[in-house]
Specification:
This protein is an alpha/beta fold. The chain contains 6 helices and 5 strands; from the N terminus they run βαβααβαβααβ.
Length: 165
């Protein structure tokens, strides 16, 4: 049996990773695994800072990795709506596909800060429960850690330039 393909996303906060991940999952008949959904369901109202996010995300990673690998091994495609925004995050994500030998694609959504901040503001209005974390201050705190993905890291990268809506 052939393995499923893993699709990953990189891009600054507000670049559209979740929106694109939903679209790709629909187009490729893939199982979508969203970090935000899992964290929100398991730890409601417990993420109010970047440190909270890092701590709780790390607790969840082993289970998500195992689930994604099991799905890939059945031959089904997986879209991980997890940020691949730092070298450390990408190193972990690489283990998800490399350990089972699955094909992958890392989609890098390249967007200006202005576009990202406009998306974040729209999201704050549409999803009021995110008002405490979807802020300019959080964007700036997260963006200072963002590192553009490189093919030399071992990824097959597709770059998409995000334009104004």
């Amino acid at each position: 049996m052939s393995l499923g393909k893993l699709t990953l996303f990189a891009g600054k906060m507000g670049a559209g990773k979740s929106t694109h991940s939903q679209r790709v999952a629909e187009q490729t008949n893939a199982v979508l695994i969203s970090e935000d959904e899992w964290l929100g369901a398991l730890y409601p109202n417990q993420i109010t800072s970047l440190n909270d996010y890092i701590r709780l995300s790390n607790v969840l990673k082993p289970q998500i990795k195992s689930l994604a690998q099991q799905i890939l091994q059945t031959g089904s495609n997986v879209v991980l709506d997890y940020p691949a925004n730092t070298v450390a995050q990408r190193t972990w994500l690489q283990t998800v596909f490399a350990e089972v030998g699955a094909p992958h694609e890392l989609i890098y959504l390249e967007a200006s800060d202005a576009i990202c901040l406009a998306h974040i503001e729209k999201r704050r209005v549409a999803q009021p429960h995110r008002q405490s974390t979807d802020t300019k201050a959080m964007f700036e705190a997260v963006t200072q850690h963002f590192v553009v993905p490189l093919a030399s890291e071992g990824f097959t990268i597709t770059r998409i330039q995000v334009e104004d809506d």
